[in-house]
Amino acid sequence: MVGIIGFGAYVPFNRLNRAHIKDTFGAPVPKGEKAVANYDEDSITMGAMAALDCSANLDTKSIDAVYFATTTAPYKEKQSAATIAGVLDTRLDIRTADFCDSLRAGSSAILAGVDAAMQGLNTMVVAGECRLGYSAGSYENHFGDGAAAFLIGNNHVIAEYIDSCSISIDFHDLWRADDERFVHSWEERFCINQGYNQFVSDSVQGVLKKTGLTPGDFSKIVLYGVTPRYQGQIAAKLGFAPAQIQDSLYNQVGNTGTANAPMMLAAALEEAKPNDYIMLVSYGEGSDAIVFKVSDEIANFFPACGLKGYIENKKVTMNYGKYLRWRELIETEPAKRPVQKRSSLPDMYRNRKKNLGFYGVVCKNCGTVQFPPSRICIECRTIDQMEDYRLYGKPARVATFTVDYLAESLDPPTIVAVVDFEGGGRLICYLVDCDPDEVKVGMEVKMSFRHIFTVDSIRTYFWKAVPKL
Amino acid sequence: MAIGIKDRAAVIGMGCTKFGERYDRNLEDLMIEAIDECLEDAGIEFNDIDAFWFGTFTSGMAGLAFSNRMKSHYKPVTRLENMCCTGLDSFRNACYGVVAGAYDVVMAIGAEKLKDGGYSGLEVPTEDSDRTLPDLTAPSRFAFVAPAYAHKYGLDMQQMKEVMARIAWKNHKNGALNPKAQYRAEVSMESILKSPIICSPMGVMDCSGVSDGAACAIITRTEDAKKYRKDPMYVKGIQIAAGPGHSEKHQSYDFTTAFETYYAGQAAYREAGITNPREQISLAEVHDCFTPTELIIYEDLQFSERGQGWKDAMNGFFDLDGGLPVNPDGGLKSFGHPIGASGIRMLYESWLQFHGRAGKRQLENPRIGLAQNLGGQPYSCVVGVGIVGNELG
Question: Nearest CB to B128: which of A336, A344, A426?
Answer without folding.
Answer: A344
